């Protein structure tokens, strides 16, 4: 998910752990802060290999971890996250259990984290399943300067429950009365290839608005946008859909973009970058609707700024953890096949997140207090959200079946094309 803030991650030196009066953006309150600066860029560095942790050596008991000398001397992991209510266990891991990581907020979402992972600017990302899978499912080498292996792998699970995407239009748009009114309309998205873009095709597929050319156009447009955005070091998102995939249109970018306009189930795809601009866009008529997480949208329904006309759930568990391939070592162990070994700091991260999740589950009132005072949610909405979300007891590992289902849906929608990019089993460095 993406926040209403600017699409660039605010990343700088940690300066405090205490809340300031009024000047701090809501998504950094309670976390180590990063001072935004117009010319500031994430510092590029490689993920330093430490004493390796064989992926699969899972510690199911929340035992205290004693860092070894290599871990003590290495720099903290740079962990990207989306600063919304789902990040509460990360905050608890930092506050109560000493998570030693540089937490970098990405209000613009998973797509921006993919760009930063491939640029070597972060080591780990916690984001949306469909974004991670779509990024690896595109043709190898489609992203200029990215490693042929996609730059990252799925290594953990952060949320077990599906995500509810709310479908929103402007408060004064009486001509839009239902989801069916949206066919042939203008969809607002944060960027081509983002979750808001991908779920638009999932919605169209569920309502029977897609044909084979729509799917081809979606895949071509997403691939073209990924290449262009990465080449300019802008924010890129990757996204998804399902079924028997059509062959992508020709390689000429102009032909692909024209194909998208003519074959899409929507008359136009309007890129608006941020949550705030999406809300403004549906009120001005620049777009007819957009899709965003339900509880993040709800306060704007309550205020009358926008209007809800429907919702759609992801048919997969919603949040995954990925690690840069620089943090993963592939080894051939005595004829048993290739095994992935992680930088030991990633194993420590799993342990601390597990502790933060356990604390979240055992202290719902503290969670409600944090969400309703430090983030943009009411106490009532925070309590309702707690009823809908389930985090795993152990974050290490990913269900390959979930990735396979996500790929199938994204191929049907035309976001991915069979035979291009990585297969599901190759996207996962640690299966559970």
Provide a brief overview of the structure.
It contains 14 helices and 13 strands. It has 432 residues and is α/β, with parallel strands linked by helices. The longest helix is centred in the middle third of the chain and has 20 residues, at 212-231.
Question: Would you report the number of β strands?
Answer: 13
| Fraction of helical residues | 25-40%
Order of helices and strands: EHEHEHEHEEEHHHEHEHEEEEHHHHH
Mean of all residue-level pLDDT scores: 76
CATH topology of the largest domain: D-Maltodextrin-Binding Protein, domain 2
Notable characteristics:
five-stranded mixed β-sheet; alpha/beta; disordered N terminus; D-Maltodextrin-Binding Protein, domain 2; 35% helix; 16% strand
Textual characterization of the structure:
- There is one protein chain.
- With 432 residues, this protein is an alpha/beta fold.
- The protein folds into two domains: 52-58 and 75-162 and 318-427, D-Maltodextrin-Binding Protein, domain 2 (3-Layer(aba) Sandwich); 164-313, D-Maltodextrin-Binding Protein, domain 2, CATH 3.40.190.10.
- It is 35% helix and 16% strand.
- It contains 14 helices and 13 strands.
- It has helices at residues 69-73, 88-97, 110-118, 129-137, 195-206, 212-231, 253-263, 275-284, 294-302, 344-362, 364-374, 379-388, 400-413, 424-427, and strands at 53-54, 77-81, 101-105, 124-128, 152-159, 164-170, 186-189, 268-271, 289-293, 306-313, 319-324, 328-332, 338-342.
- It has a five-stranded mixed sheet with strand order 3-2-4-11-5, sandwiched between helices.
- Strand 2, helix 2 and strand 3 form a beta-alpha-beta unit.
- Helix 11 packs across helix 12.
- The longest helix has 20 residues, at 212-231.
- It is globular, with a radius of gyration of 21 Å.
- The two termini are 25 Å apart.
- Mean pLDDT is 76; it is low at 1-29, 31-41, 48-65, 141-145 and 219-262.
């Amino acid at each position: 998910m993406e926040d209403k803030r600017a699409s660039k991650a605010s990343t700088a030196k940690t300066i405090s752990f205490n809340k300031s009066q009024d000047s701090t953006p809501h998504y950094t309150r309670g976390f180590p802060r990063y001072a935004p600066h117009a010319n500031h860029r994430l510092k590029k560095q490689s993920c330093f290999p430490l004493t390796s942790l064989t992926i699969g050596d899972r510690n199911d008991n929340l035992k205290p971890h004693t860092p070894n000398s290599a871990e003590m001397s290495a720099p903290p992991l740079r962990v990207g996250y989306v600063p919304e209510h789902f990040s509460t266990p990360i905050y608890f891991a930092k506050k109560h259990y000493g998570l030693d990581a540089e937490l970098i907020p990405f209000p613009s979402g998973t797509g921006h984290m993919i760009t930063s992972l491939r640029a070597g600017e972060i080591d780990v990302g916690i984001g949306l399943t469909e974004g991670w899978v779509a990024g690896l499912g595109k043709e190898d080498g489609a992203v200029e300067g990215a490693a042929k292996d996609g730059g990252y792998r799925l290594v953990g699970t952060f949320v077990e429950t599906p995500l509810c995407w709310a479908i929103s239009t402007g408060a004064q748009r009486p001509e839009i009365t239902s989801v069916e009114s949206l066919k042939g309309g203008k969809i607002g998205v944060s960027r081509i290839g983002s979750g808001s873009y991908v779920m638009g095709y999932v919605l169209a597929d569920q309502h029977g608005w897609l044909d084979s050319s729509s799917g081809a156009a979606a895949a071509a447009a997403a691939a073209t946008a990924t290449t262009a955005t990465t080449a300019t070091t802008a924010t890129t998102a990757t996204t998804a859909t399902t079924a028997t995939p059509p062959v992508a249109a020709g390689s000429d970018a102009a032909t692909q973009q024209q194909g998208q306009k003519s074959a899409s189930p929507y008359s136009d795809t309007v890129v608006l970058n941020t949550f705030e601009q999406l809300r403004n866009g549906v009120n001005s008529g620049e777009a007819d609707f957009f899709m965003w997480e339900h509880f993040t949208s709800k306060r704007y329904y309550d205020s009358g700024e926008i209007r809800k006309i429907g919702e759609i759930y992801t048919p997969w568990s919603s949040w995954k953890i990925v690690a840069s391939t620089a943090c993963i070592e592939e080894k051939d162990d005595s004829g048993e096949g290739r095994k992935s070994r992680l930088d030991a700091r990633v194993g420590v991260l799993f342990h601390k997140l597990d502790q933060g999740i356990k604390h979240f589950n055992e202290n719902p009132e503290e969670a409600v207090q944090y969400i309703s005072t430090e983030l943009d949610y009411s106490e009532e909405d925070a309590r309702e959200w707690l009823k809908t979300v389930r985090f795993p007891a152990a974050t290490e590992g990913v269900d390959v079946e979930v990735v396979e289902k996500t790929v199938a849906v994204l191929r049907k929608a035309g976001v991915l094309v069979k035979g291009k990019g990585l297969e599901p089993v190759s996207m996962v460095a640690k299966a559970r």
